[in-house]
Amino acid sequence: MVYCRYFLEIFLRFFSLFIFVSSIFLVGCHRDQITMSSVPVSFRDVPHVSEATSVTDSEISWKTPEGWERLPDVAMRLAGFKKVSGAESVELTIAAFPGDVGTLAANVNRWRAQMGLSPVDEAGAQALVRERTINGHVFQVVTLEGASDGPNAHKQLHTAMLSYAGKTWFFKMSGDTSVVQGALPEFEQMLVTLEFKVL
User: In the chain, where are the structural domains located?
Assistant: First the structure.
């Protein structure tokens, strides 16, 4: 009887120790699971690397200059892009409309109004236009400085207009003067890459 009780006490002690060690092990494993759990990452959280890309419309294609961000599509334009340089920025838009879209003075005065400038007559509009031939296409180019006494001070607008295949095509760049000036070579290069799919 004494030996039985002795062995029973030993067995109970070892069994209690086993339960205690097992509980510690289970808690430790549970903690490891919490520590190692992961949170799904959306692709929207991954930074987008901008690079030069070819953009195609049903009637025209072009190559976007490297570093220009594509803007959301809106009515009345084929595409829009933005480039940021520090605290300053510039936007580039592409649009096309049937016919001649009014007189030269009407188009020039629309841009002048955007820059806070007073309108001019047809002769004044003609004086602001210079022609630029690229790949056989004759563009009418206009550059305007914003009014110095308003919100468009230190702003510049640069537009290339082309009449082709029964439409008037507008390629307009506007923004802070220094950024617009710096982006002119890229703007010109984009015009060089234009390919029209209509005759």
Answer: 1-37, 44-196
Token pair for residue 173? 């760049």
93, 187 Cβ separation under 8 angstroms = no
CA triplet 38, 41, 44: central angle to 5 degrees?
A: 170
**Which pTM value belongs to this model?**
0.70
Listed residue (97, 76, 95, 99) closest to 166, CA to CA:
99
Residue 96's alpha-carbon distances to 25, 77, 99, 100, 173, in angstroms, are 72, 7, 9, 10, 15
Which among 187, 192, 189, 118 has a CA at the least distance from the CA of 149? 118
Question: Which class is domain 44-196?
Answer: alpha beta
Kindly report, residue by residue over 84-100, the tens digit of the pLDDT: 989 899 999 999 999 88
**Among 155, 158, 70, 89, CA closest to 116:** 155
